[in-house]
Design a protein that fits this description.
Shape: globular
CATH architecture of the largest domain: Alpha-Beta Barrel
Domain Apiosidase-like catalytic: 36-360
Distance between the termini: 73 Å
InterPro entries: Apiosidase-like_cat_dom, Collagen-bd_put, GH
Number of strands: 19
Largest sheet: 6 strands, parallel
Radius of gyration: 23 Å
Domain Putative collagen-binding: 363-453
Pfam families: Apiosidase, Collagen_bind_2
Strand order of the largest sheet: 8-7-6-5-4-11
Protein name: Glycoside hydrolase family 140 protein
Structural class: alpha/beta
C-alpha cells in the first residue's frame, strides 16, 4: 500500500534528521492590514487608512548584523517609512554566501532542509521592525533561485513541488506575525514557455495555506515590469506592483493608470522606481548618478496617478554596500552614509501630504488640468477627493485648472514644497471657470504641489 506524506511533514522529518528545530505551531493570526472596501487602498483591519511608504532593503536580512539592522530600521522609522522590502533568500549568492553570523539558509542549498540558525536572524529583524511600528514586505526568495537565464547567481533550486513546500514552511513560521506583507517574485518576469508561473503560484499557495487562508495574508508580486500581466486574476494577489526601473524618462503615470483601470479593481503601486544615487539607466560614464529631483518626481507622479503607496530606493542601501564588500552598479558611498540623502528625507514629506486630507476618497483626475505634457520633467499630475485637490507641477511650470469639479463655492489655494514639507498660503478663488496658477519658483529642482481646498471644509494648511 502506498503511503502519502504531506509536504510539511516531509519538511519536518528532513529538518529533524539534520538537527533543526522548527518554530512551534501557533494559532493563525490575521494580518493587521487588508484592502479597503473600495478596492483602491490598504487599510488596517479596523478600516483606518494605511499609507505604504516603502524602502528598498533587499540585502538587509543577508548582509547586516543585528546592531546594524536596528540602526537601519530606526533611521527609516524615524523618517516615517512604514514598510521595509527585504529578501529572505537574497540576490547576492544568498544560498551560499553566509549572513553576518556565518549562516546560510539551507543545508546543501536544499529548500527542504532549512537552517534554523539563519532563520533565527530573520526572526530577530522582523521582531525589531514590529517594535518600531514597521511592516516587513518579505520576499521569500529572489527570482534567480527560479530563473537566472539573463542574470543572477542562483542556483535555480525551485520547482512547483518544493516551492509549495518552502511556502508552507516560511508561511507557517511567520503566520503569527501581523506586520508581514508577502511579496512573491523578485525582479523576474515568468519566462514564456516555462512553468515559472506555476512555480510562483506554488510558493504563494503554500504561504496562504500555512497562514490559514487568503483572509490571513496580504500578498503581491515583484516583477521586472508589472504583476498584472500574469497574476491580476489570481485570488492570492491582493494588490499589483510595478517596477518602472532606473531611467528618468519613464511615464510612470501611464503604467499606474493601466493597472488602476483593470477589472477586478485592485490597489496598485510602484515597488521599484528610479533609485537615488544609482547610475542613470545603469550607465555611470554616460549619464552620471540619478538626479534626486527625478527620484522625487516619480513618487508624486505615481501617487497622483492612483497608486495607493510608493517605494523609495537608494543604490547603496538596497545592497547594504560598505568597504570590503563587492559593489554592484557603482554605489557612491557606504549604506550607512546614504541613509540621510535628500531623496530619502523628502519621502517624509510625501507621506505628510498624502495623509493630510481624507485618504480613501482620493482618485486621479487629469480632467482638472487644461493642458499637459508627456515629458516627466514638465508633467502636471492631478489627484483629488470630494473637497480637495493636489496638483503636481514637476518643474514649477504654470498651468490652468478647470474649477467647479471640487465641492464648495470658494476654494483656498496653497503651495506645498516637496523639498521641505512646508506650505505657503495662496489666495481664495471662486470655484468656477478656468484659473491659471503659477508656482512660486521654476526650474528642474523646483517642483511644487498646488493644494486646493473647499473653503467651507476647514482643512488645516500644512
Amino acid at each position: 500500500m502506498k503511503v502519502s506524506i504531506s509536504p510539511f511533514i516531509a519538511v519536518l522529518v528532513l529538518s529533524l534528521m539534520v538537527g533543526i528545530t522548527l518554530t512551534p505551531t501557533v494559532a493563525h493570526a490575521q494580518s493587521d492590514l487588508r484592502v479597503s472596501d473600495n478596492g483602491r487602498f490598504l487599510v488596517y483591519t479596523s478600516g483606518k487608512p494605511f499609507f505604504y511608504l516603502g524602502d528598498t532593503a533587499w540585502e538587509l536580512l543577508h548582509r547586516l548584523n543585528r546592531e546594524d539592522a536596528v540602526r537601519y530600521l530606526t533611521n527609516r522609522a524615524d523618517k516615517g517609512f512604514t514598510v521595509i522590502q527585504a529578501v529572505v533568500l537574497a540576490e547576492h549568492d544568498g544560498l551560499r554566501d553566509p549572513n553576518a553570523y556565518g549562516q546560510v539558509p539551507f543545508v546543501d542549498t536544499d529548500p527542504t532542509k532549512p537552517n534554523e540558525a539563519y532563520f533565527k536572524h530573520v526572526d530577530f529583524i522582523i521582531e525589531q521592525a514590529e517594535k518600531l511600528g514597521l511592516h516587513m514586505a518579505l520576499l521569500p526568495t529572489w527570482g534567480d533561485k527560479i530563473n537566472k537565464d539573463k542574470w543572477g547567481i542562483g542556483p535555480e533550486i525551485f520547482d512547483e513541488q518544493n516551492s509549495y513546500q518552502y511556502g508552507k514552511f516560511i508561511g507557517n513560521r511567520y503566520k503569527a506575525k501581523k506586520n508581514i506583507i508577502w511579496i512573491i517574485g523578485g525582479d523576474r518576469n515568468p519566462r514564456k514557455g516555462s512553468n515559472d508561473v506555476q512555480v510562483w503560484r506554488g510558493l504563494a499557495n503554500g504561504i496562504t495555506e500555512a497562514a490559514g487562508g487568503k483572509d490571513n495574508v496580504l500578498m503581491t508580486f515583484h516583477p521586472q515590469t508589472g504583476s498584472s500581466t500574469w497574476f491580476h486574476q489570481d485570488d492570492w494577489l491582493d494588490f499589483n506592483m510595478l517596477q518602472t526601473g532606473h531611467c528618468p524618462d519613464v511615464n510612470v503615470w501611464e503604467k499606474i493608470s493601466h493597472d488602476y483601470n483593470l477589472s477586478p479593481t485592485k490597489p496598485t503601486m510602484d515597488g521599484e522606481p528610479l533609485y537615488e544615487d544609482i547610475p542613470v539607466c545603469f550607465d555611470l560614464k554616460k549619464n552620471g548618478y540619478a538626479d534626486v529631483n527625478d527620484v522625487r518626481r516619480k513618487a508624486y507622479q505615481d501617487l497622483f496617478a492612483g497608486a495607493h503607496g510608493h517605494t523609495y530606493g537608494c543604490n547603496s542601501v538596497w545592497q547594504m554596500y560598505e568597504p570590503g564588500r563587492k559593489p554592484y552598479i557603482d554605489p557612491a558611498k557606504p549604506w550607512f552614509e546614504s541613509l540621510d540623502l535628500p531623496g530619502a528625507a523628502s519621502m517624509t514629506y510625501v507621506r505628510k501630504l498624502m495623509e493630510s486630507r481624507p485618504f480613501l476618497e482620493r482618485i486621479p483626475d487629469q480632467s482638472m488640468v487644461i493642458t499637459n505634457s508627456d515629458n516627466p520633467k514638465n508633467r502636471i499630475q492631478a489627484t483629488r477627493g470630494n473637497g480637495y485637490a493636489f496638483i503636481y507641477s514637476s518643474s514649477g511650470q504654470a498651468f490652468e485648472v478647470k474649477m467647479g469639479i471640487l465641492s464648495g463655492k470658494k476654494v483656498k489655494a496653497s503651495w506645498y514644497n516637496p523639498r521641505t514639507g512646508t506650505a505657503m498660503a495662496g489666495k481664495t478663488y471662486l470655484n468656477t471657470g478656468i484659473q491659471k496658477f503659477t508656482p512660486p519658483t521654476q526650474g528642474n529642482d523646483q517642483d511644487w504641489v498646488l493644494i486646493l481646498d473647499d473653503a467651507s471644509q476647514g482643512f488645516t494648511r500644512l
